[in-house]
Amino acid sequence: MSTATARTAGFSTRLRSTAVAARVGLVLGVCFAICFVTGLVSHYAQDVAQPLGFPTSPAWGYRVTQGLHVITGTACVPLLLVKLWTVYPQLFRRPPRGLRRLAVEVAERLSIAVLVASAIFQLASGLANVTGWYPWAFSFRPTHYALAWVAIGSLVVHVAVKLPLIRSALGADVDEGLEQEGPPGALSRRGLLGATWAAAAVAVVATAGNTVPWLRKVSVLATHTGDGPQGLPITRSAKAAGIEPEAVGAAYVLEVVRGERTVTLSREDLLAMEQQTRTLPIACVEGWSGTADWTGVRLRDLIDLVEAPLGSDVQVTSLQQRGAFSRSVLQGGFVDDERTTLALAINGETLNLDHGYPARIIAPNRPGVLQTKWVTRLEVQA
Amino acid sequence: MRTGLAPRIALGAVGVLVAAYGAWLLLSRQDAEQLRSAAVWLVAGVVLHDVVLAPVVVVLGLLVSRVVPPVARAPIAAGAIVLGSVTLLAVPVLGRFGERSDNPSLLDRDYTAGWLVLAAVVLVAVVVATLARARRRRQPPS
Questions:
Q1: What is the mean pLDDT of residues B92-114?
Q2: Where are the transmembrane segments (chain B) (predicted)?
């Protein structure tokens, strides 16, 4: 930052300095990179048309990447606020003379505007989304995904523009270039940085209990306590999904279909099959996760009833009337994995209706939205 | 060590391409009404920061430097950074805007009480830091 221009705008450059901006910016950039990569992982995991199947191991993989996504994004809020505070005087910088310089200045300011707008958008929309609050008309997932590319792209442009400044600032002492004494007793640059790291740490500890069980007691601002029906939270209730009581009553059947062949099973038939109990995490895209003991029929055993070859994809259909995830595709890797279960019970009790009674899918390393509930049809894809 | 202009231009070009891909994704997957809503949010975020939040923080900073005794200034500023930013990110849970009667497992904490506990912890830290600074000042440097 140019010291002279900042001072003409009436701001002190003691704290609003390149030394502070570069240090906070470095951590913020790393956090944005983590959010971007974990976001891509989540987007890929939810995409049913992936060229390469999403891996089924480790079972806790998606839990970690999505937990990290939300935790890092939350930590970015204090970091971004302090970063914007340090560079705020730049907004009032006087435009340079000369057409060429002016054009460069306009281009740089535009790239900053895109970066700031997309960065604030990503954090604000993500924070609202994890609390189930959608005060907008756009579709969250495609918009958050598209603007992630915009934010990362404009961040790369920003780094390219500022690289010499960043290098010299990070290579020097944090108090380098300090020209003026602060007012008595005021925060030092080190103090400001310390407070910023503390704010990010408090933000993490106050919210991460959503996915880190031992933080549950201290995460006073987390969206979930981790409790819920049968000891596990839900994201979409039976009521919200439009599940009719008749559909899950005596009339309920599961159809297993491959081409012309259909095997129809009642819930009693399913209970009469060999049962397995698996301890698997469920990790929601909204960032909460938990572990449960799931008991039910191994999915592969069901698909074997219609003699599906190894590696077949299976389309899972729910009784769910509303929502984008009334259908999901289990790719071959998940279908053939021993652990993938059509669960009938959770933690030793019959599944609660909100957990997907009469039967739900639970597979390792999979986003919660794809762990389809109220399953009524399994169709082997040709 | 200096990085030449060419690698920086190449890096910038990569950034422009990545951002342009994002813009294309944004514009090609949704209808006009959805895009208008996204545009409103994009602009509102910047305006709320630059026109409302940042000036308020400037005024608060001036207030601290005029009203607060020097010994307490740094602790109060640090406490305000922690509590202010965490409060801002807690707005969705404090307002409980996403609450649903059919899903009691979502937003199932008393967030007001949680925030008060957090504010109390920050306040205690500010007071302790201020007292420690005051004590250090009274002792002449050895």
A1: 96
A2: 9-27, 39-64, 76-94, 114-132
